[in-house]
Amino acid sequence: MVISSGSQIIGPKTIGDNVIIGAGSVVVHDISDSSVVTGVPAKVISNDGERHTQYYLKNY
Description:
Blueprint: E1 2-3, E2 8-9, E3 20-21, E4 26-27, E5 36-38, E6 43-46, H1 49-57
Parallel strand pairs: 1-3, 2-4, 3-5
Antiparallel strand pairs: 5-6
């Protein structure tokens, strides 16, 4: 899971595996596995989160 700076998760939400939350996003709903979300409120823009998280986290 990658939670970018300035993001907010409002209330108890379920965040799936391999999720990317874009900077400044406000999460108000549960997020399913391998989703990429952004916006206010956060909306799914891609279901390819697994590939993206592997790329961003491979050096850590």
